[in-house]
Design brief:
Elements (H helix, E strand, L loop, with lengths): L2 E6 L3 E6 L2 H12 L5 E5 L9 E5 L3 H28 L1
Length: 87
Amino acid sequence: MEIKVLEHAEDKVKLEIDSVTFANLLNNELWKQKIEWAAWTRDHPYLSKPVISVKAKDAKKALIAAAEQIQSDAEALKKALAKAVEG
């Protein structure tokens, strides 16, 4: 996955991500935290990559926590799928 930092400050981060699916997933996970706001946009559906913006007391920490939660959820899904297929 390719990620490009477009803006970085303690309270605001803007990233260009090469996956609409991951931008949406990350945005949803961020909103579960205590942040000021998070959103993603894309200038053109075929010609541009999604850009996610986050504003929080510590935006970097919020992004890392969201990514870690996504990873944990994916591991739980993997285990549940393996168990379902076995039985």
